[in-house]
Structure formats: structure tokens, C-alpha cells
Amino acid sequence: MDNILSKYNSLDSASKKQVRDFIDQLIGKKESFKKQGSSYKKNILLVSTWSEQDAHLIARWSEKAIN
Prior knowledge:
Layout: H1 2-9, H2 13-47, H3 52-66
């Protein structure tokens, strides 16, 4: 980390601003991705619901496949 800080300190003001802007952009993308993932998961859960009967059938099929 000291190496990164020393490189940052060697930059001029304009370059330091570019680095800060880039870091802010990366953080923004990360937060946006988390929100999208959460929304996607909620939508999938609304669509793909299995009943107890479905789960029972799958368990029976897997038992037959193993035996």
C-alpha cells in the first residue's frame, strides 16, 4: 500500500484528480452491480417457485437414478 501511496504522491494535481475520479467510478460500478444482482434475484424468485409436490417428484426421480 505504501508503494501505491508513494506513486500517487508523485503525481501532479490533475493526475491525482483523474485517479480519484477513477476510484469513484469503480466504487460506483460495484454498488450498481450489487443493486442489479439483488433486483435480479428477487425477480427470479418470483418466477421460479417449486411446490412441495415438485420437490417430492424430483427427490423420487433422483432416488431412481441412483439405484
